């Protein structure tokens, strides 16, 4: 029953990504819970997300196996990756409507930092449990 309600909610929400339904903080909370920790490197990685269109523009994920922490203020570690995007685009990635590779390719998501971490980043991002990944 809960899974059926989740699928219904996903279908309804995914089709209606109105600006008033987009929330960077909620997106980051969901994203934090879906990071593929088994794919993270052995060393800690700090990722700063900057949303060009959000009231709260910056969030930080501290990726440290087996934990992922979401910070609303700079936690003071050296930043390894800088992700710049808008809330709609990254919501579409999380919902499986747009692949991370396509978002990189069209420039709607940019990642700056060490090249090995940039290449691996897309593999760390988990999708909504109700998403159907797209190529």
Helix and strand run: HHEEEEHHEH
The strands making up the biggest β-sheet line up spatially as: 3-2-1-4-5
First-to-last CA distance: 30 Å
Question: Approximately how much beta-strand content do the residues carry?
Answer: 15-25%
* Rg over alpha carbons: 14 Å
The shape, in one word, is: globular
Whole-number mean pLDDT:
87
Low-confidence stretches: none
Give a short account of the largest sheet.
Answer: 5 strands, mixed
- Tally of separate helices: 5
Report on this model:
Helices cover about 35% and strands about 20% of the residues. It has five helices and five strands; from the N terminus they run H-H-E-E-E-E-H-H-E-H. It is globular, with a radius of gyration of 14 Å. The longest helix is centred in the N-terminal third of the chain and has 14 residues, at about 1-15. By secondary structure, it is of the alpha+beta class. The protein has a five-stranded mixed sheet. Strand 1 and strand 2 form a beta hairpin.
Summary, kept brief:
With 135 residues, the protein is α+β, with helices and mostly antiparallel strands. Helices cover 36% and strands 21% of the residues. It has 5 helices and 5 strands.
Give descriptors for this structure.
5 helices, 36% helix, alpha+beta, 135 residues
SSE map:
Layout: H1 2-15, H2 24-34, E1 45-51, E2 58-64, E3 67-71, E4 81-85, H3 87-94, H4 100-105, E5 110-113, H5 115-124
Parallel strand pairs: 1-4
Antiparallel strand pairs: 1-2, 2-3, 4-5
């Amino acid at each position: 029953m809960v899974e059926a309600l989740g699928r219904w909610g996903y279908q309804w929400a995914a089709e209606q990504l109105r600006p008033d339904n987009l929330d960077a903080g909620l997106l980051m909370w969901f994203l934090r819970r879906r990071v593929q920790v088994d794919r993270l490197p052995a060393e800690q990685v700090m990722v700063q997300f900057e949303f060009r269109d959000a009231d709260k523009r910056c969030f930080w994920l501290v990726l440290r196996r087996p934990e992922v922490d979401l910070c609303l203020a700079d936690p003071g570690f050296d930043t390894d990756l800088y992700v710049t995007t808008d809330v709609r685009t990254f919501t579409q990635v999380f919902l499986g409507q747009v692949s991370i590779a396509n978002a990189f390719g069209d420039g709607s998501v940019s990642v700056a930092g060490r090249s090995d971490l940039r290449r691996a980043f897309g593999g760390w991002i988990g999708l909504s449990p109700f998403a159907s990944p797209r190529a």
